[in-house]
Structures are given as C-alpha cells and as structure tokens.
Amino acid sequence: MSQPPVVAPAPAPLLRRGSALVLLGLVALGCGGPDPGAQPEGWDSAVAMRPAADRNPDPRTFEMDLEARIQDLELLEGKTTPAWTYDGTIPGPFIRASVGDRLVVHFRNTLPEPTTVHWHGLRIPAAMDGAPGHSQPEIQPGETFTYDFVLPDAGLYWYHPHVHSAAQLGFGLYGALLVDDPTEPADIGDELVLVLSDMALKDDGALQDPQTGLDFGTLFGREGDLLLVNGKKNPIVEARAGRRQRWRIVNAAKSRYFQLAMKEHTFTRIGGDGGFMEKPVESAALVLSPGERADVLVVPRGAPGSTIAVRWVPYDRGYGTTFNRPEEEVFRVHLADAPEVTETPRPKTERTLTPLDLAGATPISLELTQGEQDGKVTMGINGVPSWEAVPIPATVGETQVWTVKNTMDFDHPFHLHGFFFQALDESLAPIRPMEWKDTVNVPVDGTRRFAVRYDDRPGMWMFHCHILDHADAGMMGMLDLQGGSGAGH
Ligand code: C2O
Ligand code: CU
C-alpha cells in the first residue's frame, strides 16, 4: 500500500470528521476526482449552522466564547424580530468535538434578565449543569460564567437556558452540541444536524407574549406557528437519489412535538438521546417530544429533479392537540438531476447494552399532577409544585427504578438532568431495543418506568417536564445525590 497523498489542510472548522472522510474517500477511490455518487455540491448549505470557533490550539480542548444577547433577525420575510440569541443566530453556534475532549465555554449574559446555560443530556458535574440556585446562582445581566467540563459520551446534545425557560427558549435561545466517536464506522451516511423548533411571532415580526392564552396556554403548552429547521423556514436540502443520509435531530421546541413523515419513505432510527441503540428500528413516522434526539438514516428516492416533503404530522398529545391542525412542511429534499445511485451496504451500528442490575434498586414513584394556586393553574409532581417540593434523596452508586404516572389530559416529556436511564416495561424488563435515554414521553393516563444508576457526581439534579410551560408552572423536582467524592460540589 502506498502512502495516501499529502493533502493541504482545510480550514480548522472544516477539518472535523466529515471533511476528513471526504478526503479519505477520494484516496480510496484512487482517482482524485469527485465521487460520482456523492451529494450535489453545497447540498446542505440551506441548513448549515454557523460552527463555534475553537480558540484553543490544544486539539483535545474546545474553548469558545458564547454570548446571550438580543439580535434583530429576519425570520418573517421583510420583518424584524428582536430575537434572543446565542451569538446572534438561531440556533446558536454549533459545537462539535470528540468524546473525551474538554469543552470550555466563556459565557456572557447580555440579556435584560438573568439566565444560565444548561447542557441537556450531558453527564457532567452538577456544578456545570446550569441549574439556577443549585449548580450556580443565576447569571445576571452583564455577568459572565465559565462552563468547563469533559465530554463523557458520544451523541447529539443541546444547550439552552434554565431561567424562565419557556420564554427564553421560545425567543430563540438554544444550540446543538455534537460529540463524535472517532471509532464509529465512517460510512454511516452523509450527515445533517437538524435543530427543529418553532417560534410564536406577531405579524410584524415582534415576539409573542410568552403568557398568551393564560391558563389554557399553560395547560396546552404554547406552540409557535413558525416552524424552523436550523433557524430556517422550510429550507431545501439538495440530494442524490439512493445516497444514504444520516440525520441527527434534536427537538428544541418548548412545547411542540415533532412527528415527521415522508411519503413513500421510512426512517431507520439507529440512535437516540445517548448514542446508538441496541439495533436499528424502521418506521414510517418519527416522533420526537421536546428535548429528545434521534439519529436516523434516510435514503431519498424518486425521479431526478423531484422534491420530497418532510412533513410535520399532528401528534395526539392530549386534549385538543390535533384538533383542526393541518400537516405542514418542515423542510424539503430536492433530488438532483442525476440517476439514482445504488445504496451502499449499511455499516454496523449495533451496540451491546447491558441492562442495569435491579437487585436492591430503590423504587421511586411520581405522579404528574395539576393543581391551582391563587386562582392560577399550577402543575406539580405528587401534587406539589416545584417551589414547594422536597428533594428526592439518592446516594452515589445507588440504582433506582422510577415509575412516572401521568394523571393529566396532556402528555408530558419527562427529563432527568445529568444521568442516562434505561426504559423498562411493566414487568421491569428493559424495553427492546435498548438505548440510553434522558427524556421519555409519558402519555395521557400512561405510566413510564426507567432504571437509573448514579455515578460519582453528587449534587442537586433537576427533573421536569420538557414542555417548558409545564416546567415553569411547577412540574419539576430535584434529586439530592449524596456521597462519593464530592467532586460535583
Ligand atoms: Cu433540556 Cu432541564 O432541560
Ligand atoms: Cu408536561
């Protein structure tokens, strides 16, 4: 074997895995020309996110600045929206690093109110989790805070505020964080990272009052009319028919569920919140409740030059949530004017996951409840809103089995900070195929069970409904994890 030819280094942000693979692909073809089956040039430019800039020369440390600030954006044609942004864009800068890398984020709050940054799904120390009043005090306007932690697991994660979450997130504060596993197969698919969200704007582009609809708005969970993919309305991805794509999707909407469907196409889901699943699952529709992620393979097929719509299909998450709601296009895949290529064999992404040992596990029972205080709707856990809740005790090394029962007329996507869990069925056997989760949908009148084992990261950890109007109305609690090294404090 001869040595691969020396190639000129690409600009730093491009030298991440994707481009390196393209270069390797050229070497493998041994022709130096473009791969004839490749995606059209600039195929993903309509959904490209601005990459975060790494200012640390150490390849294993990603160090960046991040500012939360108001920025005028044109989200509706010809209209100006004073959006709340990370670094001036929706979504915020796309952070991409490898598992085991250290991430240092010098954060500055230039918003007119306090905030924090929560790193959704990451198993990091409690002090870095962005839980106001627990991890850290709220970051006041004009103040700074440095987040500094090691990225422990591969997968797609995201970041968002944890103060007035429904309002701040709804105004545009969220971003994606992709943690690569350099050892995973190279040819899983041409990758798109898709941050799905929605926004509630007035006709003139102004931000809608986050309290619209009062109690009913709170109960329903406020959705915005403007559907966004990486901050764009109905963008078009150019594609080569037959060529496999890998979509890494996060639902960053504050209340909206995304059920996606494409006519005559299926989704092959290979992973979720915490990396690959035991084995892939194929389905005609893909459902992501707020906070959840999916890693899916899609092979667009059709006549050259035709367009495939990726549609939002109403998902029944309780009383009135599908009433009078048409399907909507989220984005489109436009097929290049070139013959369909033969799909290459799908590499193995199957992963061995060991069920947690439940011998001696502590049972924890929660009910998601609705209440009232001072004539206003509240929500809670076991009848108690977050501001009156007593933390659930836990010890480092302990395993718990949580049973979460929904007594309300709306679904609740239940999220636990800082730890992955394994979903269980009624007999407490793991639900197959297994995967690591941090957010699970608890349907109307339904019960969900999961097992969680606490590693050595003591501290206070939040759990809450990820319909953020519900969380803000009180559907939130704390886990008080004690013992271990105390490194989390
Ligand atoms: Cu996305 Cu408290 O979480
Ligand atoms: Cu809820």
UniProtKB/TrEMBL annotation:
Xref: PROSITE patterns: MULTICOPPER_OXIDASE1, MULTICOPPER_OXIDASE2
Keyword Metal-binding tagged: yes
SUPFAM superfamilies recorded: Cupredoxins
Keywords annotated in UniProt: Metal-binding, Oxidoreductase
Keyword Aminoacyl-tRNA synthetase applies: no
GO function term, MF aspect, one: copper ion binding
Domain of life (superkingdom): Bacteria
Domain Plastocyanin-like: 74-183, 192-302, 362-479
PANTHER family to which the protein is assigned, alphabetical: MULTI-COPPER OXIDASE, MULTICOPPER OXIDASE LPR1
Name of the protein this chain belongs to: Multicopper oxidase domain-containing protein
Species this chain originates from: Polyangium spumosum
